[in-house]
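Hypothesis: this fold can be encoded by more than one sequence.
Test: take the structure tokens below, design a sequence, compare later.
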């Protein structure tokens, strides 16, 4: 199994609460449209620390091929396109579960 973790920090001039809710809804919907996506959890940050990211995604795939399928899926690409002007930083970790 492969885990895919993404942390997103929105630009300071954005309505973070609104964007977080919007993207959580869009990402949660991918579970029903991306067959290679085995599970997903999207969390909204509650920390007020300046170093904190606003949204975290943890997804599971059978393998790297499944992750690649997800990355190229049209529904996922639409979300990435929507995020382009709103995101300050993104951190990603992909790892194999032993």
């Amino acid at each position: 199994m492969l885990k895919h973790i993404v942390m997103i920090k929105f630009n300071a001039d954005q309505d973070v609460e609104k964007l977080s809710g919007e993207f959580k809804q869009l990402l949660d919907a991918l579970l029903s449209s991306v067959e290679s996506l085995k599970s997903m959890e999207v969390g909204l940050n509650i920390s007020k620390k300046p170093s904190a990211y606003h949204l975290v995604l943890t997804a599971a795939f059978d393998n790297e091929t499944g992750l690649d399928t997800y990355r190229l899926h049209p529904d996922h690409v639409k979300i990435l396109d929507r995020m382009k002007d709103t995101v300050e930083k993104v951190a990603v970790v992909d790892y194999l579960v032993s």
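The beta strands are 2-10, 39-44, 55-61, 87-96. Residues 63 and 88 are 29 Å apart (CA to CA).
Hypothesis status: open.
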